[in-house]
Amino acid sequence: MQTVLNVITLTAGILLVGATLNAAIKTVVLPRGEQVLITELVFRAMHYLFLPFANRARSYEARDRVMALFAPMALLALPAVWIALVMIGYSAIFWSIGVRPPALAFKVSGSSLLTLGFAEVNSLPAAIVAFSEATLGLGLVALLIAYLPSMYSAFSRREMMVSLLEVRAGAPPSAVEMIARAHRIRGLSNLSQEWERWELWFAELEETHTSFSALVYFRSPQAGRSWVTASGAVLDSAALYLALCPKSAPTEARLVLRMGFTCLRSIADTLG
Fold first, then answer.
1. What are the tens digits of pLDDT across the range 181-218?
2. Between the CA of residue 45 and those of 23, 51, 70, 74, what are the distances in Å?
3. 13 contacts: CB under 8 Å, gap ≥ 6
4. CA distance 10 to 107
5. Could you tell me the pTM of the whole model?
6. 3-state secondary structure of 32
7. Which burial class, exposed, middle or buried, applies to 190 when counting CB atoms under 10 A from its CB (0-12, 13-18, 19+)?
8. C-alpha torsion sign, points 111, 116, 122, 125
């Protein structure tokens, strides 16, 4: 009976560690949009924590200040959850190979994962497990360090175009205002260049916001700006031009409309 219990505990621990490592790789390393249950649950839980504070805000600006903290806090909570799950999984593994009682197994697991080294093991199998856990702990930290610069670089590129749109389409951006200002400044032919730039922006947005899905929840530095409303204004301007002047509309209007739809559809599919 004890042998069966050891096998079940060992299997459960390995599965938990494997699921956590799989979630970390899909969230950080895999260059494609994948729905990751652990990541989704962490962000959903953090959203529920922030929502009551946001609902008590009396203005949009106050609500925006509260929700601006949501994505960074959820991102910081993600590695903490990974580490906690790995620690629990390895505690089960240590217990199954003879490190008893459960409190000692948890202590050895935490010492190994955080590379503290204050809890010693006396058998070769336990030592091998401890080495593997220490390696995994360092790997999770390295993943996070590599993850943040890439993500914030993509965020900066996204927001640069959103900021530039404010002088071209107002704040909040409007498709009608975008067309009117283009006509007043340099003529409607200037919109072709603008739509071409936004087609490239949508292509990069699709790649970054499906690979790093946490970017979707990062708000713009200013309360009156949003990459979502900016996307809508640009796509609406192209759609208006195509609807009102179908024969004279430039090819760039059709291309940006299709690229924008494809981009936002891909992001929505990634988020489920």
1. 988 887 787 888 999 999 999 999 999 999 888 899 99
2. 17, 10, 10, 9
3. 88, 89, 90, 91, 92, 93, 96
4. 17
5. 0.83
6. coil
7. middle
8. positive
Report the phi/psi class of residue 117: left, alpha or beta, with left for phi > 0 and alpha for psi in -120 to 50: left
DSSP type of residue 101: S
For residue 246, say if its preceding peptide bond is cis, omega within 30 degrees of 0: no
Q: Which of 76, 74, 53 is nearest to 65 (CA)?
A: 53
Structure confidence by residue, pLDDT tens digits, 127-157: 899 999 988 888 887 877 777 888 889 999 9
Rounded Cα–Cα distance for residues 89 and 66 (Å): 34
pLDDT digits (tens, 9 = 90+) for 106-124: 999 998 988 777 777 878 8
Number of residues in the chain: 272
